[in-house]
Specification:
232 residues, alpha/beta, Spore Coat Polysaccharide Biosynthesis Protein SpsA, Chain A
Amino acid sequence: MPLSSETVVVIPAYQAEPTLRALVQAIGRLGLSVIVVDDASSDRTFLEAREAGAVVLQRAANGGKGAALRDGLAEARRRGYEWIITMDADGQHLPLDIPSFLEAGKQGGTDLMVGNRMKDPRGMPSHRRVTNWLMSGWISCIAGQRVPDTQCGFRRVSRRLLEQVPMTSERFEIDSEMIIRAGWAGFRIASVPVTCVYRREASFIHPVGDTFRFLRFLRRLLAERRHASRRV
C-alpha cells in the first residue's frame, strides 16, 4: 500500500546517470511516484529516470537547479498532488528518510518541512559545517523563523504554499528563496532530522560565481520586500 497517494517526489537532475536509477527505484519501493526534471543533461539521465519508472520532463536547455525544480513543482501541482517532497539526484538524500517527513506531517499545521543534517553532521567537512551554520543563521533571521539547515534541498512542501508563494530563482538560491518567502507569507516552517551524506565527487556549485549570484538575489528580494511594505 502506498505511504501516501497525495504525495509525489520531485527530483531536479543534471548529469545524474550514475545515481538516478537506484534513487528512483528506492523511492518507488516506498510506494511513491517520482517526477524527474532532466535539466538538459548530455548523459543518460533522461533514460535512467524513465526506465526506473519516473515521469520525466526534459528541458531543452540547461537552466539550473531552480529552473528545473520550478518545472517539477508546477507539474506536481498540475497532476493534483497535495504534497511534494524534493530531493537532489546525486545520492546525498536517502529515501529511507522520507517516512520521517510523512510522519511529521501527520501533526498538521506545517506547510514546509526542511531536512536538518546538522543534528548529526558527521561526514560533512568542517568548512561546509561553518558555512552552513552561518548561512542558516542569516536566512533564518531574514525569514523570521529558525531553520537549522537552510541549504538542505530535502524538503516536504504543500500545494497550498506553492499556490501562494511565487518563486523565481533559477539556480541554487531557490532553496533560500523558498524559506524566505514562506516565512514572509506567514507559513510555519519545521525541521526534520535527515542523514548527513557527503559525497566528494565534483560539484556543480561554483563558489565565487554562486556567491555573487546569491548576494544579487538577496538584494533583489529585500528590495522587493521594502517596495511592497511602502505600498501597504
